[in-house]
Amino acid sequence: MIISKLIFSTVKKIRLYYEFINLIFYTHKGSEELKRILNSKNKEFFYVFDTSVSSLAYGDFIISSLFLRYISIFKKIRFIFLNDKIRNDTKNRLSKNEITKRIKEFKEIIKFICKKKCIIHEENHKSFFKKYNQNNNIYFKKLVLVRKPLYKINFNIINKLYPKLNLKKKNEILFKKEDFKKFKIPSKKFKNFITVGVRINYQNETSRNHDKKSIIKFVRYIKNKKKNESKKILLICDKKNLNFLKKIFKNDKNIFFSKDYTQSFLEDGYYILNSDFYYQYYGTGISVFAEFSKIKFEIYTDLKRGFFSKDIIRSDQLYNKFKKNSWQTDNQKFRDIDYSSL
User: What are phi and psi of 117, to 5 degrees?
Assistant: First the structure.
């Protein structure tokens, strides 16, 4: 029994290191490929999102969209959805109707983030191969043709590129309040508030979920900070878990819930960017709005980036041993969580 456990643990560790080496290798290759296409005379950049191998998680898609936001400074984006198949783990988590709605929302997200400098196409793999086989301006075409995902390397490429950009280009990449002008915030209720990202009852990577005990403890921790004494707290959650959270905090008149006011992921992002501070403990993709902005935050996450986890190597690796993100300010703090102990 002990020997079999040791073998299993060793195999798992080898797999994690193999994933990491692959991530670093393809990040490097992706950077070279990006440079080649940006330096070409072609005015368009073709990016393929293959739903058979790509994550339909909001956070992953937002990061890919911000990668394209950078490219849209230089070229028009042709965004191609290959949607003839859906990844198995996605089908296990989302219904057909939810998947359809998610892809529809993704189309709005990519247009919004790329400031309408994006044309969207939908193809199946067979028709894509026929139409674009001779096109050399498709980003990482070799991987696309054999149905390999691209989204995992996008964060790391931007993380390395950002410090080399001039101030104007830097300002065009990160989220700002002004980007979200079309959304309206109820000023009477939310003039002096902080936001808290909450992940509950997700089927994948359950160690990143809050439960009743942990969310109560974390909210208490936030409220006990002197600077938050007069602040309203807006919990950023999904619709499925709205009632669960309302039952927990039904007697607290200073706690509000985003899904009482928002209908989309982007609208949640608007509230985060308009808040005075963002907090998060455990994982939730909504943190991308805080991370890719100048808003003050305190985020508890796995700073080992999966090397000692039970699950997976994180695709968003650290910029260096002092910073997770190269654009991170002194008012943006990441604190470590040891997921291996959970």
Answer: -90, 40
Instruction: Kindly tell me if the per-residue pLDDT of 254 is higher than 80.
Output: yes
CATH architecture of 178-341: 3-Layer(aba) Sandwich (3.40)
**pLDDT tens-digit map of 176-192:** 989 988 777 665 678 89
- In 114-253, alpha helices (H): 125-132, 141-145, 151-161, 167-173, 212-223, 242-248
Q: Please state, in angstroms and rounded to a whole number, the distance separating the CA atoms of residues 56 and 105.
A: 11
Other C-beta atoms within 10 Å of 234: how many?
A: 25
**CB within 8 Å of 105: residues ≥ 6 apart:** 264, 265
- Residue 97's contacts (CB-CB under 8 Å, 6 or more residues apart) are none
* CA distance linking residue 274 with residue 183, whole number of Å: 11
Whether 278 and 296 have beta carbons less than 8 Å apart is answered as yes
What's the length of the chain?
342
Task: Report the chain's mean pLDDT, rounded to a whole number.
Answer: 88
H helix or E strand, kind and range, residue 25 = helix 2-38
Q: Output the pLDDT for position 314.
A: 78
Which of 272, 284, 295, 58 minimizes the C-alpha distance to 174? 295
Query: CB of 216 within 8 A of CB of 233?
Result: no
Q: Amino acid identity of 184?
A: K
The answer to whether residues 93 and 203 touch, using CB atoms and an 8 Å cutoff, is: yes
User: What is the C-alpha end-to-end distance of the chain, expressed in Å?
Assistant: 22
Nearest to 60 by CA among 97, 122, 114, 106: 106
Domain locations in the chain?
2-173, 178-341
| Whole-prediction pTM | 0.89
DSSP string, 215-242: HHHHHHHHHTSGGGTT-EEEEE--GGGH
Confidence (pLDDT) at 219: 94
Q: Regarding predicted confidence, which is higher, 284 or 85?
A: 85
Q: Which residues, 6 or more positions from 294, have their beta carbon under 8 angstroms from its beta carbon?
A: 174, 176, 329
Q: Are 283 and 199 in contact (CB under 8 A)?
A: yes
